[in-house]
Amino acid sequence: MRKYIIAASVILLTITSCKKDFLNLTPISNISATNFYKTESDFTQANIGVYAALQGVYGNTALPGYGAWIMGEMRSDNTVFIFNTKDGGQLGRTDVDEFIDNTSQIATQSKYTSDYVIIGRANQVLKSLESVTFSDSSKNIFKGESLFLRALAYFDLVQYFGDVPLQLTPVTTYAETQTPRTAKATVYNQILADATTAAALLPAKSVQQAGRATSGAANMLLANVYMVTKDWAKAETLLKSIVSSGGYSLVSDYAQVFSPANKNNSESIFEVQYSDNASAGVYSVFAYLFLPTLADPGVIPGFPSSATNGSSGGWNTPTPDLIAAYETGDKRKEATIATVTVSNTTYPYLKKYVHGAAVFPITNDNWPVYRYSEVLLFLAEALNEQGKTGEAIPYITQVRARAGLTPITVTDQASVRLAIEHERQVEFAGENKRWLDLVRTDRAITVMNAQGVKVKANPAAYYYPQGIVPSPVSYNVQAFRLIFPIPNREISLNPKLTQNPGY
């Protein structure tokens, strides 16, 4: 509920036990903001609390688990759910996939709530920094990180919900939370302002603590905004600055990009941090969610036996469309998709986040938000959209070469545009990029209605059991469903909020 999501009087804080290891996060307490924000150490703890809220956006730390993959990946033609005849109680996920979601879906509420938690905590840090006296260099980094995280949260909100309330200061009363929605254009302007300031304040990756925001991450966020708003020239300038900085490079082995042993690698621009330190309570559970429902997940190498993932499995399952999208010889397919046989039926699952667990359901996978390969593909797209197609192709070639593929052979702008779309689909499969790509390129309605026809024509190919078919009203993708409804609970708490048309 928004009245306590962004309230400034109390903030959940977390602290790291080792300054060099940003991953070992241990919750300590709830402390009054008035009494807490005094020393640099206080801000270090509070700052980690802002980062920790990202876990609620990208993937909760407990089963059954919700995360950005529901609205960002399952909404697309990349992944679906495996229909579970024994448990039909997960409509918060299935309805989103089938385009029959309403104002009460848990997944939608979870994203909205988690983003405002980030915003509320960032606002408190930013306000409190105004009255402390430790070194300006440290204050600038704290400020840059909070501005980056606030901008990232608002960018997430505006892409998925359209107009949203813009709150830039801590609130201390229920009445202060009752604000109307702000026009999308105004929210975008604030995102640009926050990210621009953050880019100027934050250090480069080479000197920043692993796992924390950098100038490169802020510039990438800015470039992403410009790609969505189709300001190609500004996106090109920023993306080229990231390339020329020399701070990033492709990892030679695509599979190693996602290995927990290789977190925050040379390709990583920003990723959400998780840890399998059981006492910290900040582990990830993606692997168990993305595997099919298994009586014994121990059949998957590296997982403990006799710990069923019950009704929690079978989500974010690769579609036949995604599997068929990989070209012969594309190394990314083997690194992204694996299969397992359950009751004589073979199912695919996303392999990127499946690296075993010592204890059920505690896994150690981070979630990638921005990678250097996206810089290259965004840059190719920005160039191509400006008619600089010849200059764009070498950037696509870099990504394909790592995948073991030869350069594309098309050279006209329209064909290169589709080649980039295809490259992004397979390069970022399972990373919450596909749905937003389809929306920003005005392809969502066409692509998803076509997939809906295929699902209804052959439900078994999309993991429906014999005799079970999708709802007749499912996969009817209309323009209003390009954004999601404001959660009904938020509207009931804040009478100044209005609903998106169509919901």
TrEMBL record:
Pfam families: SusD-like_3, SusD_RagB
Keyword Phosphoprotein applies: no
Entry keywords, A to Z: Cell outer membrane, Membrane, Signal
Record has Membrane as a keyword: yes
Location of the RagB/SusD domain: 335-503
UniProt domain SusD-like N-terminal: residue ranges: 104-227
Major localization class: membrane
Subcellular location: Cell outer membrane
Family: Belongs to the SusD family.
Protein name: Starch-binding associating with outer membrane
Higher taxonomy: Bacteria, Pseudomonadati, Bacteroidota, Sphingobacteriia, Sphingobacteriales
